Amino acid sequence: MIDFYGLLKDTNAYKIVKGDKENGRLSHAYLFVTPDGDNLLNYLKVLAKTIICEDGSPCLNCRKCKLIDKEEYVDAMFFPKSGDTVTAEDVSLLIDEAYLKPIEGKKKIFIINHGENLSALVQNKLLKTIEEPPENVYLLIGAVNDYAILPTVKSRAKKISAENFTDEVIINALKNECEDTEKLKYAVSCASGSVGEALKLYDDENLKETLDFSADMIVNMQSSKDVLTYSVKAAALKDGVNGLLSALEIIFRDMMVGRVSPEKVKIKDVFEKIKNAKGYSDGAIINALDKINEAQKRNKFNANPTMLTEWLLLQILEGKYIWQKLSE
Fold it and tell me: Cα(30)–Cα(139) distance, rounded to whole angstroms?
């Protein structure tokens, strides 16, 4: 079993909430942001226990802590109640419950998972409770990003972000879950600090194929004709566009790091294939990473995978030639 408290306790996000509690200045609303969407609810439970537990910060063993883990503590409500996103009916229930006194403890807490999926209607309906909450009522909103969170909500909630975990921390957290140590190290090195991503990559039998394809593409893509060819091939990848974007980000980051500190490269066998790729100046690599980041954002909003891949590869190719001209 993964120790999510052990993972979160050294982060600034946890320390802020713990410090606020110890100093008697808990915020009425927190917006917790982490890219690890697969484990978002587990992190939210740690923070909820930190706020609610009266025996520690948190003690993890009291009745309240154990019931929060099971989502059965009477003064902690989890949303959405069903489906993937909070509905207007969910918010109505939350508002009604917020004005009822706690039953068992001194505080009530409402936990919203995947707040990035909240509609504008739902967020606006939440605003009054966020602005003028009843005494001892706390709202904890978790999201993988805050792009879709309304400015009015963001300005009234205290934003806390979980920084990416180090490879060592993730390996220690997962070593009892994953028997193949070498495979785990390889997956973690590709996971960009995300526990959820590391687990998925550990189980991904196609990871090496996607990395090798991406490395070949970076080395050999020279024209718009090549872009079309590789876009078609990318569509057939079993890992899909998510896997391709992750692989490209890993490779370009290694390309940049390898120029200064080759010993810090994460995927050494792939780095050997791309380290001498022609035309990639520092500026071209930074441009590629910027465009990959933009593609990842577009992908979250359900962009067409083939069109997104073509757009990204053209942007990488164009950036490479622009920086070549600038250096001449």
Answer: 6
Cα(30)–Cα(162) distance, rounded to whole angstroms? 13
Q: What is the pLDDT of residue 107?
A: 96
Closest CA to 146 of 20, 35, 28, 12: 35
**What's the residue count for the chain?**
328
pTM of the full structure: 0.76
Residue 198, amino acid? A
How much of the chain is in helix, strand and coil states, percent to nearest 5?
Answer: 60, 10, 35
Average pLDDT, the chain: 92
Phi/psi for 158 (5° steps) reads -85, 115
The tens digit of pLDDT for each residue in 9-30 reads 999 999 999 999 999 999 999 9
Encoding tokens for residue 80?
A: 């959405």
- pLDDT band with cut points at 50, 70 and 90 for residue 266: confident
How far apart are alpha carbons 3 and 139 in whole angstroms?
A: 24
Specify burial of residue 218 (Cβ count, 10 A radius: 0-12, 13-18, 19+): buried
- Read off the amino acid at residue 224: S
**Distance, CA of 99 to chain centre:** 33
Q: How many CB atoms lie within 10 A of CB 185?
A: 18
Q: Cβ of 275: how many Cβ atoms within 10 Å?
A: 16
Q: What is the C-alpha R_g of the chain?
A: 22
Residue labelled with tokens 């394809």: 213
Q: For the chain, where are the E strands, in sequence order?
A: 29-33, 76-79, 108-112, 137-143, 158-161
Q: What is the DSSP string of 48-115?
A: HHHHH-SSSSS-SSSHHHHHHHHT--TTEEEE-SSSSS--HHHHHHHHHHHTSPPSSSS-EEEEES-G
Using alpha carbons, select from 149, 263, 57 the residue that is nearest to residue 139.
149
CA distance 121 to 88: 8
